[in-house]
Amino acid sequence: MNTVDRRRRLGPSNAIPLSFPSVESNSDIENTSVSSFNEQKLFIQLSNIPTATGSSFLQLGNNLLLASVYGPRPSFKRTFNSKAVLKITFHSSPFLSSRQTESTFNNNNNNNNNNHLNSDIDPEYQIVNSVILSTLETACSNLILLDQYPKSSIDIFVNLINTDKSTKFIELLSLIHTAVNLALIDSGISVKNFPSSIVSSSSSSSSSSSSSSSQIFINSIHSDIYDNDDEKDLQNEELLTFYIPKSTNNNTNIKSTLKDSIDDAIKQSRALRSELSQFCYNKL
Amino acid sequence: MVLSVAESAFIYDSLVSSHPSRPDSRKPTQYRPLKANCGFLPNSNGSSRIYNPDGTECISSVKAKVIRSNNISDLINVEINIFGEKDNTTLCQHLTTLIKESLNDSFDFNALKLTDKYYFQLYIDISILYLPEDFRYSSYTFYSILSLISMGVYLALKSAKLPLLVSDKKDFEVEEEPTFSDDWEVSSYLIPRDSISTFQPALVFIVGIAGNTVIIDPSLEEEHVLEHGVCVTWSNSKITTPIQSLALSTSNNKAIKPNLVIKSMDLVEQVAGDVINALNTISEQEIDEFDVVF
């Protein structure tokens, strides 16, 4: 730096310029974290928003999520509600530059510029807000005992703070559901049972799980009936919501593998549930 | 529809009993009567009008535009407009997503390929003209109209005609825009009708679940008491994605047993063939004057 910095644009003479660590190449990240998505450590913090009835903060890899539950609050609408009204809002941070959130509505009305931006994203990785909202609405209305809160409203906010390119949409979906589930548990609002959500990929060749098979997302609770036999007890699980996205392999018959993949998902879901409930129990 | 506690309990009990009976005495696999017409909009390549006995009416139109692109994910655009609903509600967006996903999954994009460089881009506009008053201010979510919308789109796509290309198909080296014949008599169907090997657009079925009973095409009374809804997509004679659980109304929601998901797919497999045959028959009826429709 030979030029004299008369205007002190570079700051004081003893200033050290900011340096950012170089970002690792994408391909490396994808390979490692796709395979180890389920083995990654999950960081959970509950009750981090003091004004909310219940809230949870989740971190899994680069995915940061914040869910908060407000209510039951009195609803001052003119119509009489015999049960609580649920309102769910999903918000993803505007600076999520690595991924584009898809808004179907804008996409349709817009010119080609927008389409071209979206086009290079693999549909498996595209965040579809409407799927998130509709599955959340279904799950929460099935989970919460809304009858117990007449003339009131419950608001749930989900904020996606960060994510990365290597997390599939469906994996993110299960994280979002986990965050909401934990926030609901934290809030103390009456729910039917302890929920847990999981993504299971039923793969014939499990070695290349990312490429081969159909995936299923479930958010489930245990029903009131219990069975000592583990295999029979799988039938006592109840699905709050489920979603099967487009499979990479079109030739497989979804129905033939569905039974096994649901059973598999339920087993994983229960494993996760036992850990989560242990965690919540320790917090008490 | 606002049902009293006694009424809804009666409907629910008769649905979940060992011999399920529906309020309008339909079989579990039976649809309500539908009316449909095709190809009546003069300004669009394909169109359909389909309506339920309860007054729900859906008009779909397919328009084709020539674009220079090879990006297949852009080629189908769907927009759904529901009377009295804003366009940016979750419902509208989600219906759009589901229809678009199901079509993208099943479509044979070679049918849209025009030349080496040019493709047809499809704009599918769907308008729900009327929903029964009972839908509003009640516990209903509107997701049950998905089945009607999907049938409307199917018919519109089946009736869509594309003009005959008169310029050269192999234009990769040549800088020229495609030109078409003015004569609509020589136009061809987007989805060819004669051969058996052609693809079929996806159909989305809505299945209602109460207790251990699965029913197709739930009516308003039934939706009020149903515990769960499942949307299942059917294309090219097999079940495909997206498959998703949907709450049809918020009055009596419960979680769903895993074996009922399989059961609802069995139900769709039973009815899908008949529905497709019926829709194909409708789409092959020729309409000369569009007055006939109204």
Automatic annotation (TrEMBL), chain A:
<dbReference type="GO" id="GO:0000467">
    <property type="term" value="P:exonucleolytic trimming to generate mature 3'-end of 5.8S rRNA from tricistronic rRNA transcript (SSU-rRNA, 5.8S rRNA, LSU-rRNA)"/>
</dbReference>
<keyword id="KW-0698">rRNA processing</keyword>
<dbReference type="GO" id="GO:0005730">
    <property type="term" value="C:nucleolus"/>
</dbReference>
<dbReference type="GO" id="GO:0071051">
    <property type="term" value="P:poly(A)-dependent snoRNA 3'-end processing"/>
</dbReference>
<keyword id="KW-0963">Cytoplasm</keyword>
<dbReference type="GO" id="GO:0000177">
    <property type="term" value="C:cytoplasmic exosome (RNase complex)"/>
</dbReference>
<protein>
    <recommendedName>
        <fullName>Exoribonuclease phosphorolytic domain-containing protein</fullName>
    </recommendedName>
</protein>
<keyword id="KW-0539">Nucleus</keyword>
<dbReference type="InterPro" id="IPR001247">
    <property type="entry name" value="ExoRNase_PH_dom1"/>
</dbReference>
<dbReference type="Pfam" id="PF01138">
    <property type="entry name" value="RNase_PH"/>
</dbReference>
<dbReference type="InterPro" id="IPR020568">
    <property type="entry name" value="Ribosomal_Su5_D2-typ_SF"/>
</dbReference>
<dbReference type="GO" id="GO:0071038">
    <property type="term" value="P:TRAMP-dependent tRNA surveillance pathway"/>
</dbReference>
<dbReference type="GO" id="GO:0016075">
    <property type="term" value="P:rRNA catabolic process"/>
</dbReference>
<comment type="similarity">
    <text>Belongs to the RNase PH family.</text>
</comment>
<dbReference type="GO" id="GO:0034475">
    <property type="term" value="P:U4 snRNA 3'-end processing"/>
</dbReference>
<dbReference type="InterPro" id="IPR027408">
    <property type="entry name" value="PNPase/RNase_PH_dom_sf"/>
</dbReference>
<dbReference type="GO" id="GO:0071028">
    <property type="term" value="P:nuclear mRNA surveillance"/>
</dbReference>
<feature type="domain" description="Exoribonuclease phosphorolytic">
    <location>
        <begin position="41"/>
        <end position="189"/>
    </location>
</feature>
<keyword id="KW-0271">Exosome</keyword>
<dbReference type="GO" id="GO:0003723">
    <property type="term" value="F:RNA binding"/>
</dbReference>
<dbReference type="GO" id="GO:0000176">
    <property type="term" value="C:nuclear exosome (RNase complex)"/>
</dbReference>
<dbReference type="InterPro" id="IPR050080">
    <property type="entry name" value="RNase_PH"/>
</dbReference>
UniProtKB/TrEMBL annotation, chain B:
<dbReference type="GO" id="GO:0071035">
    <property type="term" value="P:nuclear polyadenylation-dependent rRNA catabolic process"/>
</dbReference>
<dbReference type="GO" id="GO:0071038">
    <property type="term" value="P:TRAMP-dependent tRNA surveillance pathway"/>
</dbReference>
<dbReference type="GO" id="GO:0034476">
    <property type="term" value="P:U5 snRNA 3'-end processing"/>
</dbReference>
<dbReference type="GO" id="GO:0071028">
    <property type="term" value="P:nuclear mRNA surveillance"/>
</dbReference>
<dbReference type="InterPro" id="IPR036345">
    <property type="entry name" value="ExoRNase_PH_dom2_sf"/>
</dbReference>
<dbReference type="InterPro" id="IPR020568">
    <property type="entry name" value="Ribosomal_Su5_D2-typ_SF"/>
</dbReference>
<dbReference type="InterPro" id="IPR027408">
    <property type="entry name" value="PNPase/RNase_PH_dom_sf"/>
</dbReference>
<dbReference type="GO" id="GO:0034475">
    <property type="term" value="P:U4 snRNA 3'-end processing"/>
</dbReference>
<dbReference type="GO" id="GO:0005730">
    <property type="term" value="C:nucleolus"/>
</dbReference>
<dbReference type="GO" id="GO:0034473">
    <property type="term" value="P:U1 snRNA 3'-end processing"/>
</dbReference>
<dbReference type="GO" id="GO:0000467">
    <property type="term" value="P:exonucleolytic trimming to generate mature 3'-end of 5.8S rRNA from tricistronic rRNA transcript (SSU-rRNA, 5.8S rRNA, LSU-rRNA)"/>
</dbReference>
<dbReference type="GO" id="GO:0000177">
    <property type="term" value="C:cytoplasmic exosome (RNase complex)"/>
</dbReference>
<dbReference type="GO" id="GO:0016075">
    <property type="term" value="P:rRNA catabolic process"/>
</dbReference>
<dbReference type="GO" id="GO:0000176">
    <property type="term" value="C:nuclear exosome (RNase complex)"/>
</dbReference>
<feature type="domain" description="Exoribonuclease phosphorolytic">
    <location>
        <begin position="30"/>
        <end position="163"/>
    </location>
</feature>
<dbReference type="Pfam" id="PF01138">
    <property type="entry name" value="RNase_PH"/>
</dbReference>
<protein>
    <recommendedName>
        <fullName>Ribosomal RNA-processing protein 42</fullName>
    </recommendedName>
</protein>
<dbReference type="InterPro" id="IPR001247">
    <property type="entry name" value="ExoRNase_PH_dom1"/>
</dbReference>
<keyword id="KW-0271">Exosome</keyword>
<keyword id="KW-0963">Cytoplasm</keyword>
<dbReference type="InterPro" id="IPR050590">
    <property type="entry name" value="Exosome_comp_Rrp42_subfam"/>
</dbReference>
<comment type="similarity">
    <text>Belongs to the RNase PH family.</text>
</comment>
